[in-house]
Amino acid sequence: MTRRITYTPLARDDLEAIADYIARDNPARALSFVRELRFFCRDLGEQARRYPVRSEFGLDVRGAVYRNYLVLYSERPGDFITIERVVHGARDLETLILQEPTSE
């Protein structure tokens, strides 16, 4: 079943920060990489339960890895998948994510 993908404001900020960081060295790659991340997120709508629950980040939050990035998402009523955060795996994930509120 394909579900509609939504992004929290924090996830949108994450994607923008990723693009900005990559664009310092390669603006074209920044655009293509964020596009790849968005395609990956879209594909989560087809296989949302494939990835494990990451309860340390919230009730029913799942985590999927794309290259060096962790995509945290949750299933929502009405056939929605909400992308909660997109963060580099080298970051202190628990501190970063637990200090930020998640979407309702």
Polypeptide structure, described:
- By secondary structure, this protein is an alpha+beta fold.
- It contains 3 helices and 4 strands.
- The protein has helices at residues 9-23, 27-44, 93-98; strands at 4-7, 61-66, 69-76, 80-88.
- Helix 1 packs antiparallel against helix 2 (27-44).
- The protein is globular, with a radius of gyration of 13 Å.
Provide keyphrases for this structure.
104 residues, alpha+beta, four-stranded mixed beta sheet, 3 helices, 4 strands
Set out the fold topology.
Layout: E1 4-7, H1 9-23, H2 27-44, E2 61-66, E3 69-76, E4 80-88, H3 93-98
Parallel strand pairs: 1-4
Antiparallel strand pairs: 2-3, 3-4
Helix pairs in contact: 1-2
The whole-number mean of residue pLDDT values reads 87
Strand content: 25-35%
Strand order of the largest sheet: 1-4-3-2
Largest sheet: 4 strands, mixed
Radius of gyration: 13 Å
- The H/E string reads EHHEEEH
Put simply, the count of helices is 3
The shape is globular
Distance between the termini: 23 Å
Structure summary, number of beta strands: 4
List the uncertain runs: none
Helix content: 25-40%
Structural class: alpha+beta
Give a quick rundown of the structure.
This protein is of the alpha+beta class and 104 residues long.
